[in-house]
Amino acid sequence: MAERTQLSVQRMAQTLADQFPILLQAAAGTGRRALAEFIALCEEVLSCVDSPTRTTPDSLAQFIGARDADVMNHDETTRAIMGTESLGTLRRQADNASSQAAVALARPNLPPAVSTSNGPVHLPDLLRSLTVEAALLADHCGTTLDRAGTAQCLRAVASVLGERFPGHTIEVRVPPFAAVQLGSLTAGPVHHRGTPPNVVETDTATFWALAIGTLSWTQAREAHRLRVSGVHAPDVAQMLPIVRRR
Asked: 3-147 architecture in CATH?
């Protein structure tokens, strides 16, 4: 990797690692399954960073889509880790897995692309995807990621939205963390410079809830949690949710 890219990857890796204490504490207070899901997340980090590949990687949207489609395998992995272990045993395992994964993410020369059970992926996209997974687990445990983790998660989700619906007709804004331009699902103006005439703006909590399907577009509009302008802006309702809630 070029030096600038390597530094960017290291920051992303550190951001993911910084979420582990938050998740560990929340999972321990939630129960055995949450701890097993946290262990699975850490074990995936360990497995992937030791599996470099030269196979052409999937895009972020392809990779997250593959993970969403593989929810049954995700559940089987979680159940296998959980087994009949006590809460205390799982907590000790989670402590160890967290420490090992954090050390792995701190390595100075991580591979540019890795092999995973859901296909090959660029390392930055793996880190983005796992941060989304971390946010899903945090949501399940009734907590949130820190500011940097939230930013990394929401930018990843916005990138997936932009990849799935490319274009420059609609702009979705989630200040201060993310903004993405999208194409309309119907015939819309082709916009080349500046801000598109169709804009959707919302806060981070609303965007995340829309992204994982815990809040509908109609509910968000009725609660005045969306600022929508332009005839094509409501097309975004048909692009949601973006990721599947575990």
From this structure: Up-down Bundle (1.20)
